Amino acid sequence: METLEKIKTCARYAEEKKAKDILILELKGLTDITDFFLLVNGTSERHVKTISEHIETSMKGDGILPYSVEGYNEGRWVIIDYRDMIVHIFIEPLRDLYDLESLWIEAKRYRMEKEKTTNIEVGNGKRKV
Predict the structure, then answer these.
(1) What CATH number belongs to 3-114?
(2) N or C: which terminus of the chain has fewer CB atoms within 10 Å of its end residue's CB?
(3) pTM for the whole thing?
(4) Res 69 pLDDT > 90
């Protein structure tokens, strides 16, 4: 599996657990640290941990193990390092504070596209589709 495909897979796993503001930064040619960052938000420490667990477990099921995981016990900013890609799962205020998007302003960006959803209107206690 190519790195871009792997990072998009991680993004889908994050979305499955209702992660917010999912963004992929392509860092190839900008740093030797890694090729991609995945940045996502959780709404609470428990939510951050849940997203982290799901990504790690699902990727393991795909045969991909992390090199290291940092910050899980605190649940405020979890970093899952897969060497060629690094997943950052933030509690919302910390993502704003550290603002990695601005540090890597020249990076190519990929946003997760939400699957099409059907708008459901409710009127007079009855559902209209």
Answers:
(1) 3.30.460.10
(2) C
(3) 0.85
(4) yes
